[in-house]
Amino acid sequence: MISLRYHAVSIAAVFLALAIGVVLGASGVSDRLLGAVTTKADDLGGKVQQLTAERDALAASQRASDEFAQRVGPAAVRGTLTGQTVVLITSGADPADRNAVVALLGQSGAKVTGEVALTDAVGDPARADQLRQLTAQLLPTGAQLPAASDTGSLAGGLLGGVLLAKAGTTPDQERAVLSGLAGAGFVAPGDPPAQADLALVLTGGALTGVDASDAAAVTARLAAQLDRAGGGAVLAGRAGSSDATGAVGVARADPTVTGAMSTVDDLQTGAGQVSAVLALREQVDGRAGQYGTAVTASSGSAPKA
Q1: 46 and 143: one domain?
Q2: Boundary-marking domain end, from 77, 106, 128
Q3: Is 215 part of a structural domain of the chain?
Q4: Cα separation of 218 and 97, whole Å?
Q5: Among 66, 104, 61, which Cα is nearest to 269's?
Q6: Model confidence over 6-49: pLDDT tens digits?
Q7: Does 22 share its domain with 106?
Q8: In the beta sheet, which residues pair with residue 87?
Q9: Interior CA angle at 258 toward 256 and 259, to 5°?
Q10: If we measure between CA atoms, which residue out of 290, 162, 173, 287 comes closest to residue 230?
Q11: Which CATH number goes with the domain that contains 147?
Q12: Under DSSP, is residue 303 helix (H, G, I), strand (E, B) or coil?
């Protein structure tokens, strides 16, 4: 007779055999998985080394390009803007970019009449109504604002009416406008520039935050309105400025703007700084172009002098 003990031993033997089989099977699978993972890790390690080498090579190439542009830049722009006056309008621009461009403008023969530094409040949607009302209040007698209702165009129309010589307003009217904007926190306090023939708008890269697109649009439309009000304007920004949340990107998305105003999207480089200056010469000659390294640039090379 088969005893209960026999059944217990039999069942235990079956489970032991299953356990041994699972362990042995798992060991084989583990070995195969481990081998596959190790091979994959080796492949990824090699890929990382390759990409690191490519990155370092590109960085070295960029440094060499910048050094070359910085050396030949003064010669490339020399005399191209002799007799021209330029006013700077900055909006989040990097000081190093600004200083480099000002130095090149001096080499070009242009006279920089001064700078107006816009604050973040200009692009703040929460203060848009206040800026609209202020532009109407500060508008000099006899001057006109554009028909557009967006704050960028209105602010550009107001500034263009007092900063650019073509508008024909007086220095006293300019001081009143800039003083009013500074008092409301829309521009940084400072000495008012003398009126100029051309406007160079310098900005940073792509903006961040929930209102980034709106702020970028304000700067782009302000620059476009300055272009219409004077002898020409150039909008130049750093890498990222050509994105949807960058002022250059917003400007380039509008064919009516790019048909008249020049833009530069790599102001952080020596080549971009040279392009910004030569683009002003292009404006004097009644031409426009889009320069830089972004896919939206019409040419990667600098404008013709």
Answers
A1: no
A2: 77
A3: yes
A4: 21
A5: 66
A6: 555 566 655 655 555 655 565 565 666 667 767 766 667 776 66
A7: no
A8: 114, 199
A9: 65
A10: 162
A11: 3.40.50
A12: coil
